[in-house]
Amino acid sequence: MNMSFIPVNEPLLNGNEKKYLCECIDTGWISSEGPFVKEFENKMSESVNRRYGIAVSNGTAALEVAIQALGIGNGDEVIMPTFTIISCAMAVTKVGAVPVLVDSDLHTWNMKVDEIEAKITSKTKAIMIVHLYGLPVEVDKILALAKKYNLKVIEDAAEMHGQTYNGKPCGSFGDVSTFSFYPNKHVTTGEGGMIVTDNEDIAERCRSLRNLCFKKDVRYIHDEISDNYRFTNLQAAVGLAQLERLEEFVERKRNMGRYYTERLQDLKGIILPREATDYAENIYWVYGILLDRNIPVDNRMIQKMFAEEGIGVRTFFWCMHEQPVYQKQGMFKNEKYVNAEYLARKGFYIPSGLALTKEQMDEVVLKVIKVIKSVY
Ligand SMILES: *Cc1c(COP(=O)(O)O)cnc(C)c1O
After folding, report:
1. 199/269 same-domain check
2. Pocket of ligand 1 (CB under 6 A)
3. Phi, psi of 159 (to 5 degrees)
4. Burial grade of 16 (CB within 10 A; 0-12, 13-18, 19 or more)
5. Are 34 and 148 in a shared domain?
């Protein structure tokens, strides 16, 4: 049988996306001034119980704007997981602040919350929460620390559209929260991101930072510089159509996760994502798999083996303390985070995009069994 290649992610765009996009074209509203942008900001922020939403060009930009809006700058320390996407660290180093790293918890693949307090110094300004792959971080413990030490909290909820922590939406915690709408997220706009907050001053600051720090009264005269991080009406059109189906998408992802687990749970040599913790049920942003420590290959090799079988898989993130760009600058010297290093070398995820069919999942399962049995 000659099955075609199954990509690691394919988004589902068969709702009102086309209709709203046509509306943009028919009305001529394609820039960031179009009416869908505000509507999307309102609906997104409402969906996570926030007062303000500020749409930006991508999730990385959202983190950058959030860090700047909180006034974090030169020499300030921000505590964050070492195991995450580089966007998180970049937003911090870009303003001259210092990422202070924390190891991962092997049960949830998130930052080890119990190791945060020991990292707090007089320079610490904020804690960055990053919920990874499908289970939220233990938010309450972090909020308690932030309160005790008077720290800001930035919540990166890029992978958590529709997820909750103890019944409250991810994206509703801390001083600011950010989202990404990249095509592998539960809500996509092609490229896109958003900052949500309840604080009016921070919201206003984000709006200014998103748009070159234009002043309200005298245009073209600037006291400060940022970047152009604007979000277009075309992106908002797609986002609105996606958001209408969020509940259905979450359900779909959870069913996919359960199905993979059911079919793979007896396979020796791999560790599957935890289905739930006592505060949340896994949302399976992607379906991650961890290779047993005894398997003699790493995730890069596994990715090649799956590619030969016609299956797109992706390795997990690479740790911040092992990034060549930071090592070159002498950062994180001699730092070691054993759990995070294990995840970065042995973790990968299999096709789990919203457009994936049952037939494709069955094919993926057969290939996972074949590949893993060939190395274990
Ligand atoms: C996707 C993602 C981002 C970055 O979003 P972009 O829109 O790709 O810039 C940031 N943080 C996390 C946790 C992500 O998964």
Report:
1. no
2. 58-60, 85, 87, 130, 156, 158-159, 180, 182, 193
3. -100, 10
4. middle
5. yes
DSSP 115: G
Is residue 126 helix, strand or coil? strand
CA atoms of 146 and 42, how far apart (whole Å): 28
Q: List the domain range (segments joined by +) for residue 77.
A: 17-243
Render pLDDT for 187-243 as a digit per residue (tens, 0 to 9).
Answer: 999 999 999 999 999 999 999 999 999 988 888 999 988 999 999 999 999 999 999
| pTM for the structure as a whole | 0.97
Ligand 1 centroid to Cα of residue 321, in Å, is 18
Residues 6+ apart with CB under 8 A from 300: 315
CATH code for position 351:
3.90.1150.10
Residue 176 lies in a domain: yes
Q: Which of 59, 293, 228, 32 is nearest to 154 (CA)?
A: 59
Close Cβ partners of 32 (under 8 Å, ≥ 6 residues apart): 211, 230, 231, 232, 233
